[in-house]
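As agreed, record copied across for absentees:
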Amino acid sequence: KYENLFSKEKKEFKDKWENNNNNKKNLIALLKKYIEKYPDDAFGYETLGTTYMAMDNFKESEKYYLKAIELGDTDTGKYSLALLYIDEDLNKDKQKIELGKKYIDELENEGFKSHYSLRDLRDDKNGALMGNAYATLRLAAFYSNYGNHKMAEKYATEFLEFDKEDVQNLNILSEAYIAQKKYSESEKLFLPLAQKGNSQAQYLLALGYYYADNLKEAESWAKKALAEAEKRKHSDNTRAVKELLSFINSKAKMQ
């Protein structure tokens, strides 16, 4: 459904990237414009660092890898920096070589909570950089599973361009908002969908209200979600909403 779907917003960047794929100087100029437009896109900085690395520019490569890590790219960005540090043809600093080896050991020991390897992860990041919907959703799901709610929110928010009502993506965003206590963002996203009759949005809106201690609104929207689930005979949804209503009632009694 999403494999061949690309962002309209990133179309110009994608086209220019493909047309200049063998011209490193043009790619650097293009990536610098990209990070001006998307200054919080950590992988944009990592890609810029990788392009400089391909040109044997250690100093600039290190600079952009460090910026990527600072912005949260602590998996592929950290690995890219480690590879740069242990490349003795580019780097003669023994302390950095040892630091690179330490980073690789840390990544290996840390592991991931899914089947992804760093290479697979970078492939999806490249796809998302070009605006591919499928890669963007995969990253949102990966980071949600991995417990990195900031990155999960980033990619799930980007995916809204392709589908504002995809259930998996809405669940990812709800979890990310609640984990970060971004209750106003939760309301802003889910309220319009809930008002349109989207039962999943009604449930997630109620869930956000519950964690924000707005129990009156939580109960109101949970009851609407329950009515919709029962009407459609969705047993799993019915069970989840009933459980939420039970939590709401228990919390109300304690206040």
Notes: The chain has a mean pLDDT of 93. The chain has 14 helices and no strands. The longest helix spans residues 235-254. The radius of gyration is 22 Å.
